[in-house]
């Protein structure tokens, strides 16, 4: 993208204005300070980050934002300020106001609901509230993948450790914010999800994963969000140390910003540096030099959160860097264009100077409260309840005492600024009290949790806290008295005293129960679900994902059976529930076109969006009709087909789809795919079992086949993703399929067909062998072709040829004849993009705007087979070029034919392993 000064407002030629636009700064205080006024008026600061230290209430926030915009307007700013804050929900909110601003679950809590739709609704509600008080940008969504989730400080701020799940929920949240009128900033690129911490506060956290590992995991959500229209990206302040990259500070490195983010991932939005005031960065390099390095690396906005002196130093440093020629005006203009484009999407002076304020918030509040309750209720997750202790209303007698043990924890992460507001402080105003109740410290929240439990138990509640001092005599006495014990943990993997305390209490309860005393133990993780996720000794384990008051209210109602918790664990934690999930059988239903077509199309689009980048998705271009062959088969005699779905009967959403066909004595699975967000829940297993059962009931069945050419959507196990392919092969091997002798199938392409030329000497070599090639259309001479295909290919290939011969306007068959006796020695189908076959071979639509097809070469083994194949392909290419196609697709060739065709200039577009299975080896175990 080039940016000349002529394309920009003349004002931006002024170096001071241009520099001011490239900074993103914060300040201390709940009112406009002389320092922030100076930055806006004299230094032309264009973007501001507000935090908890600036915000007391919705009304105050709206007034503060309006005043900041008014100062900018009066100072001659041509466009409004970009004003942003963090509002991740859960424990990380910059703005609290219980009268107007709703509390929603953390990112991981929302993912626990299992509903990307709910993620959109929550983000949209959050965005609308911010928009009402004049905020035009949110620092979100968090797109980090918790690769080493158990020990990472991000915790529930991130969705989880599954890249596809993080993508799905991150994009849903992003769209929710954008539809509310708020621009988005993904964070923390390239990832804070697997950092090594070396100790002191000046040590920079380090990413040690290789670029290949990052590409397969951590970068997936960032890449997918960029593809879906992410507005801005925050580049983190971390080091990267691996074989291919040695970077001290990611946001100061052109390898990270320009090469990885811009060039490799294709991001052209606004890039924002991590705060340059962070100790590890400012002490290592210095703010003045760091600012120049950040801009040189490709950052458009440089973030400085707090110190006015440091902010002035950064401004002078950037000015000096430009004057010294280290940074060109063209580089500055490029950032200006990106920033101005971003502002044009989210603000105007009319909007900035007139926030809708509390009137708008009042109209939204009731609906948002209902949404908050719904989201928290759906997020509560019971991971294990081996003793069937829940709900407590069914297992506790009226006279039983319930003991609540809670840890002493720090205030919620975004509430640190309120530590001075003591709950029992005398002389508090009513406004202070209202503000306090929204943002209680952990201890205050747990005290209120105790009160709520006491109300449920009519006073039969004992409550005390525990610390790093372990199990004390007071705890032992209370445990002896109580019939049931609830232990609260919050990040026990990083607060190890909680882990030790809980295990000690669990042992005591076990011993007391063995001695005849009733001791029910329920452990509730109120932050990271990883605390006791894998510890089977904790028989009843509940997760809430944050410890806000709203979360604790939902917990109480769940514990006492006011609703049945339906939350699920994120990512690999869900996969780890094999004790429960592996035996789960989903209801598999037969495909109903009228009922399921729309759901299947939505499922196809979801799988397509979540496919790895730079890898062709076999489902690209497919529709619900692509799997139905009966519509074109005369009377349905040539093929029998049965398709199956797992669906949500309430919403009509499809969770998984499987298509099966029966040609002659061969049963085939033509496609088997599951919603990426629903994988590892046995949906695929249930579909596979149902499909196999249906095929094995066919009389005379001799062979089972995974993958087929008609419909040519999935030709088998995709080979593009080696790790995923290996996992799928193991899965199918466990179900009786032969993975040791697969048939390798490839879809090839020539992308720049008009400029393609045959390799030197190829045409002369083919002519020397004296094979006769001709092109036929329609039914004339079709019998010899069909006999040739019937003798040398599978039944689905025969049906493909029949369809091609019936479509004489858009298809033809090239024949190769022996010079000795005129017998056919090879055939191939050629077609235009508009052929009816494209319905069943969606690659013809998805591979480009103007595609010519060469389909299903059938060339028996012989000494001249490779030359016959090249001759057939040459005629196919020639016909495609004559029809003015830009791209040629050859769908499909077998493994031994691939190299022959690659030498002609074809490239591999897609690759599969077609598997087979003998009926007597098929596994139908559950």
Which key features would you list for this structure?
alpha/beta, TIM Barrel, Rossmann fold, Aminopeptidase, 13-stranded mixed beta sheet, eight-stranded parallel beta sheet, 38% helix, hydrolase, Glyco_hydro_3_C_sf, (Trans)glycosidase, glycosidase
Structural class label: alpha/beta
CATH class of the largest domain: Alpha Beta
The CATH homologous superfamily name of the largest domain equals Glycoside hydrolase, family 3, N-terminal domain
CATH topology heading of the largest domain: TIM Barrel
Give the overall pLDDT as a whole number. 87
Cα gyration radius (Å):
32 Å
The CATH level-2 architecture of the largest domain is identified as Alpha-Beta Barrel
Major sheet: size, sense and barrel closure?
Answer: 13 strands, mixed
**Oligomeric state as shown:** single chain
**Count of structural domains:** 4
Helix content: 25-40%
* Count of DSSP strands: 33
- State the shape: globular
What is the distance, rounded to the nearest whole angstrom, between the alpha carbons of the first and last residues? 56 Å
Strand content: 15-25%
Low-confidence region ranges: 1-5, 411-440, 577-583
Figure out the total of helices. Answer: 32
